[in-house]
Structure formats: structure tokens, C-alpha cells
Amino acid sequence: MFALDKQGSNTMSSPIEIPLSDGKGTIRGYCDDKFRSVLDAFIVNFEDREEQGASVCFNVEGETVVNLWGGQMHPRQASEWQEDTMSVVHSVTKAAVSICAHILICEGKLDLQAKVSDYWPEFSQQSKEDVTVAMMLNHSAGLAAIRRPIREGGFLDWDYMVQRLAEEEPLWKPGTRNGYHMSTFGWTVGELVRRTSGLSLGDYFRTRVAEPLGLDFHIGLPESEHHRVSRILRWTPKKGELVSPYTVALMQSKESLQYIALLNNGKFKTDAPESYLCQYGAGGGIANGKGMAGMFKPFANGGEGFVDKVGLERMQAASVITHEDLTLVSPTKFSLGFMLSMDNRHRESGALETIIMGKHAFGHAGAGGSVGFADTECHLGFGYSMNKMGAGILLNERGQSLVDETYRCLGYSTNEPGYWIK
Q1: Angstrom distance (rounded) from CA 260 to CA 266
Q2: Are 269 and 278 a contacting pair, CB within 8 Å?
Q3: Model-level pTM?
Q4: Rounded distance, CA 345 to CA 136, Å?
Q5: Alpha-carbon distance 22 to 238, whole Å?
Q6: Helix 289-300 and helix 92-106: axis angle, to 10°?
Q7: pLDDT score of 47
Q8: Is the predicted pLDDT of residue 8 greater than 70, yes or no?
Q9: What angle do CA 42, 47, 49 make, to 5 degrees?
């Protein structure tokens, strides 16, 4: 814990309660005075950046130093965001799935260089016999989308989706390119978790990660907890508003990879009770800032109990760097299952294609702006969730401003190289 000397300053033992203007709700929680500017940025998000409801939490060297929440749940729910409110965190779920895979790798149950068909024999169809576990994790397996229509409700049926992926022909020769496996990642990697652990993806994550760490992070949320979930306010483009090349490609053609990767989904509804219950590992995780920060805490501090030293290096080492991801149509940088710092600010819509963390950070952004990550250099576990989506697939100014202020408070001086340095 960071010691405080200033008389009357907010500390982790002094609750914060700050009313927002115009009935937007109240900011509550705790904030070490060292990180006061993070609180200020959180308030600005509501007052100036149209934040609806959100939470941000992070720990440093294992100690929670900021845990803030505020605003409103979805207007139809007519309730303020509470400490235990959660929301769908979209692709941050991929980080949870990847953590499961890396634990199994360190336990010797899963081999990165092994063929997927060694664990999943049915997968070796349609020129996929040489796809490796590593290719599944780094988005180079060629299964970024399924071409033929998914039957209605298909995303809710694990066995159906796994069979469809086993039967699918790759969109490119596996291992030669990468394209973000936007909706398929949870089944491609999740089925490996299921086959090597003997448990469903959601059950393995719950028993091996979430319960030992006391996390409010769920891949498959029990019905008894559905009342705590804020529905999502989706982003819709406004005339003249800047959009990413990914969005342009999606809107131009229903035949595009971008369109089928996102919308060939069997009429999947993010905010339906059956969707909360299913184990949609690519984007159906339900959590809050505290849950995400807590998930990354052990990996920011050596990984003990989950992965060894080599395993932790694998989680943060770049595996694929490309000038143009085939799905996202932008430069990307991934380790084995995690996003690394990606600086596309030089591009016309760069703010919508960017996530800037530390040089040694790894984690994941979720569509609309949520984010969770670990930084092994400053021992930071970070999480931000919200219910009003922004325009990009990666971060936007709301989440990035919180990340930026956190690094400044930790003594980092600039992110000019594309990541934060001291």
C-alpha cells in the first residue's frame, strides 16, 4: 500500500462519494491519493465523454490502490451502477481463455508445438492437419470466421460450434498470416482447454482461476446473478463520425470477412439471459473492473500458483506482429493469446485501433473499450469495464485516459515509442 501523508486526502480507508451533474449518478469507491488524477479522469469520462456506467480498478504489487465505480446502468434498468455491478466485457474474455490455456501448458497437459488434432482428432479436416496449438492462440490458424450461415441459436450450442469449426476450411494457409479470430477464439482455444482439462471452459476457469482468486469474472453466469448485470448500450455510427477501416469493410459488404466474423452468429444476443448462461469464450465474459484487475494480479507479480517463469515469459512475448491484420484491417501485435501494446495513432482513425500499455504489459481490450491487463515491470493488474460502447474494437479515449493516468502516477514519462516508458 502506498503511504499517505497529506492531511485530509482520500485514502483506501476513506470512501469516495462524488455526485455527477445532471442526474448522471455518483462516483463511489476508494482511491489512494497517489492516483488522484485517475479519479479525476474517471469523472471527466462521465462529465465530458458520455460515459454511462463504469468501473475501474487496479492493483500494484498485489495491493488494490484504486477501486472506483459510478454512473448508471442501462436506462431500461433505471438503477445506479453499484460496487458489484457487472457487464459483458466482450473480448477481454479471450484473456481469461488464454490464461486457462497457459496454465495447462505449464502443467504439461497442452503443448504449444503439438498439432491441434493430437487433442481434437476431428479437427484435422479441410487442410487443417498441420495447425498447431500456438496458431490457435496467436490468430494465425485461418479460422477467423465461418463461411456458411450459423443456425439460429448456434452460438449457444458448444458441440454444434465445435463441429462447425472442425469442418471449416481455413481462410488462408494456417501459420502464414494472421487475422483476429473475433468470434471463433473461444471455441478454437476453449475446446483445447476442455479436452485437456476434462472440464468445460467455464467450469475450468471458475474452479482453477476465478474461485481461488475470489473473482467476479464469469464465463457462464449463474441465473441467480443476472440481476447484477448492466445491459450494454451499443455504439451506432453518426453521420460524419470517424470509423475504423474494420467498420468500413463491415458496412460495405455482407460477404466481407469483417461482416461474417462478427455477424454470422445465429442471431446471438449479447444481453439475453441464455447468452449470460452460455460459455461464449470469445466475448461473453461478464465482469467488472475489480474482477479483471484481480484476474491479472498474479501474472503481474510472477505468476506463482498459475504459471512458472518461462510460462510468464510466453504470455508477454510477441508471437505475431503484422502491418495489416486480415480481420481488423490494421497493424496488430499479439503474444500467445493476448494483445500487446498497439500504437496506430499515426493512422487516420488510429485512436480507434490503438491500445497503449507498458512495454511488458499483456492483456486484452474488448469491443467498445473495456480492457484488462498485467504489466510485469511495474507489477500492475488493471481492469476497466463500462456499459456504453465506443466506436472502436480496441480502446477509446475513456479507457485509454485511465490507463495513461495510471502510468503517469507510477512514474512513467512518455508513451511516444508506442508503449509507456519511465
Answers
A1: 11
A2: no
A3: 0.96
A4: 28
A5: 24
A6: 30
A7: 98
A8: no
A9: 80
Q: Which three cell numbers stand for residue 10?
A: 482520500
Task: In whole angstroms, give the CA distance from residue 285 to residue 385.
Answer: 11
CA distance 276 to 219: 8
pLDDT at 236: 83
Count of residues making up the chain: 422
Q: Which tens digits make up the pLDDT trace of 305-333? A: 999 999 999 999 999 999 999 999 999 99
- CA pair distance 409, 275, nearest whole angstrom: 38
pLDDT digits (tens, 9 = 90+) for 240-278: 788 889 999 999 999 999 999 999 999 999 999 999 999
- The CA-CA-CA angle for residues 111, 113, 117, to 5°, reads 80
- Report the distance separating Cα 370 and Cα 396, nearest Å: 9
Contact between 101 and 191 under an 8 Å Cβ cutoff? The reply is no
Residue 155 sits at φ, ψ, to 5 deg, of -65, -20
Q: Is the pLDDT of residue 4 over 60?
A: no
Cβ neighbours around 41 below 10 Å, total: 22
Give the alpha-carbon dihedral of 194, 325, 113, 362, to 10 degrees. Answer: -70
Which set of grid coordinates corresponds to residue 351? 485512436
Reduced to 3 states (helix: H, G, I; strand: E, B; else coil), residue 420 is strand
Distance of alpha carbon 201 from alpha carbon 187, whole angstroms = 9
Q: How far apart are CA 285 and CA 278, in angstroms?
A: 10
Task: Give the contacts of 411 (CB within 8 A, at least 6 positions apart).
Answer: 422
- Measured in whole angstroms, the distance separating CA 334 from the mean position of its chain's CA atoms is 13
Q: What is the pLDDT of residue 150?
A: 98
Task: For residue 190, report the phi and psi dihedrals to the nearest 5 degrees.
Answer: -60, -35
